[in-house]
Design goal:
The complex is a heterodimer of chains A (about 60) and B (about 325).
Chain A lengths: L1 H12 L1 H24 L2 H9 L4 H4 L3
Chain B lengths: L1 H29 L5 H4 L28 H9 L8 H14 L2 H6 L1 H10 L17 H16 L10 H5 L2 H14 L1 H6 L2 H19 L3 H6 L1 H7 L7 E5 L9 H5 L20 H5 L5 E5 L19 H7 L1
Antiparallel strand pairs in B: 1-2
Helix pairs in contact in B: 3-7, 6-11, 7-13, 9-11
The chains are: A mainly alpha (about 60), B mainly alpha (about 325).
Chain lengths: ~60, ~325
């Protein structure tokens, strides 16, 4: 089991898997942004951000 | 030996000034609408669709974009959404590019704490209270991620709990300037403002005595970016052939990180103090998508303690 763990971690550490993981995360990030924007989340953020947030400044 | 010491001190001094200017520029870009401070209103343009990378209240009159933590709570606190893919996507993107470099160079509240820490008084170490760093993860997952979703009013709306009860940046950037310029807001201030002002005062005092207490113990944004330090494109490297194990890098680190042990430590804000303090230039940084082929001197996993490292070090 220990040997298997070691192999797995070594594989994770390889530079190719780092690159693949980075690319995967970047692709996931872009996909999330697009999905969120299509879901209307960007509009939700905008609506909140253009009004003074009373709780944030200590009123409420 | 003494001249080498003077050289590294000089290098650190120059670098600190340069870093201060970068932080000032980032704060200015994050808060570009300065005339709004006098008008007592906030910017309402289209850029507010986008989140800035650092902790910056969107109710600051000068704010250019939205605060990622406030925006996340606003989205998940609405009845339509339970998770915000939009904000998670943006923060993941920033995290993969830079990790906690954002805390060290781009966050306005980080800069504020750095400035406070320069006030000449006795300074205290936080090494003995390292366990407190886990509080920020509880704030991230429970206060920011969970409470606005589960504690809702009858119409299904959740409160931005972090902004409302914890965040000192809202009072500093929003509450104080808006209440000075706007008499209506001034008249509405109550016990909540007093509570938040007390939190801000505590953070100010602690920041003078300790290095970046808010970043270390409370900031949910820092907690989120810390998860990406291991994969971020901006990172530090230690050349083990050049390193003489003098320990200066660990001693100058305000975040209590020993970069010789772990170059991708979650607490490392990539401030670069260790790099400039190193007398043998063994520490360097890089920003690249593809890691160079690792040689004997440096492991590809950046010394994060994997089985491969232990095998090599045997």
């Amino acid at each position: 089991m220990k040997k298997a763990d070691g192999k797995f971690m070594s594989a994770l550490c390889s530079r190719h898997s780092t690159l693949a993981f980075r690319l995967l995360l970047l692709a996931l990030a872009v996909a999330f942004v697009i999905l969120g924007a299509l879901n209307g989340e960007a509009l939700e953020v905008f609506k909140k951000a253009v009004r003074i947030c009373l709780e944030c400044i200590g009123i409420g | 030996m003494k001249s080498k010491q003077i050289n590294t001190d000089k290098k650190r001094g120059k670098f600190r000034i340069k870093r201060g200017w970068i932080q000032a520029a980032a704060t200015l870009l994050t808060n570009i609408h300065l005339p709004n401070f006098f008008k007592g209103v906030i910017y309402r343009g289209p850029v507010k669709h986008i989140c800035v990378p650092g902790l910056n209240c969107y109710s600051c009159p000068a704010a250019t974009g939205a605060c990622p933590v406030g925006a996340y709570q606003a989205v998940v606190g609405s009845p339509k959404h339970r998770i915000s893919f939009y904000i998670l996507g943006l923060l993941t993107f920033f995290g993969v590019l830079a990790g906690r470099f954002i805390c060290g160079f781009l966050c306005p509240f980080g800069w504020f704490q750095d400035l406070l820490h320069r006030i000449p008084t006795k300074k205290f170490s936080t090494r003995k209270v390292k366990a407190l760093r886990y509080v920020k993860y509880v704030i991230l997952f429970v206060v920011v991620g969970l409470l606005p979703v589960i504690l809702t009013n009858p119409s299904g709306m959740g409160s931005p709990f972090f902004c409302k009860y914890i965040c000192p940046q809202g009072v500093l950037e929003g509450g104080i300037p808006l209440s000075i310029a706007n008499s209506g807001i001034r008249a509405a201030l109550g016990p909540l403002f007093s509570l938040k002002a007390a939190i801000l005062a505590a953070v100010v005092v602690l920041s003078i005595l300790f290095y970046r207490p808010f970043c270390k113990w409370l900031c949910p944004l820092g907690a989120f970016y810390s998860l990406f330090n291991r994969v971020s494109m901006y990172r530090f490297h230690v050349d083990r052939d050049k390193c003489v194990n003098c320990g200066k890098c660990a001693r100058v680190c305000g975040m209590d990180v020993d970069i010789r042990d772990n170059q991708v430590h979650p607490e490392c804000i990539r401030c670069g103090e260790c790099e400039k303090a190193c007398p043998t230039s063994a520490i360097s940084h890089s920003f690249r998508l593809f890691e160079k082929r690792a040689d004997k001197a440096e492991s590809p996993c950046a010394g994060a303690g994997c089985a491969g490292c232990h095998e090599r070090d045997k």
